[in-house]
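[Automated response] Your request has been received and processed.

Submitted sequence:
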Amino acid sequence: VLIGLLAQEVISRYRKKVLWLVVLVLLGNLLYTYPLIRGYIFRPFQTIGTYFVKVPDYVYAFGAHIKANPTQGSILVTPQTSAENYTWGYSGVTPLVSLISSAPVIFPQYGQNNVGTLPTISTQVEKELLEKDTTVEKNIFGIFGIAAILNRADLSDREPLLEDSFSSDIFDTSQTKSFGEWMLYPVNKELI
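Generated structure:
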């Protein structure tokens, strides 16, 4: 009650000065939050200083393709990386594939690549792909319902898997789709 009476007395005596103080605080707050609202945020160790990124058209084309032709299983995202850093500017810990489509996606969780010695499902599958052990691949694809592999060539910190590591008895090479820097390799339907 006393604080209210004090505030009323101050406002009535110094009405003009209080009004200027309120306007100054509002303007100061707006100036302070403007970069946050517009996305012009300083990001240490980043080459771009904003969260606004021009997403390439092939990313949207991939999302439209998955929406029009839903997979009968999960999509394994390769190459494996716990943080996504694309050459065109996007970086984050959530795979871009899961942001543009509702298809089930297999990828390592952030920070999971360095935890213990137990490999994640996705890193084990990638390892088997590179070693060309088709019996293990067939078992893993069947158990986890992997219907396709998305090979991304636009990551700045990892090389894409080599195309010759994909065995034709596992992948339906006639159905391979290209989306700019991304290639989608469907798994033979009898393996799912």
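Summary generated for your ticket: Residues 15-38 form the longest helix (24 residues). Residues 114-118 have pLDDT under 50 and may be disordered.
If you did not submit this request, please reply to this message.
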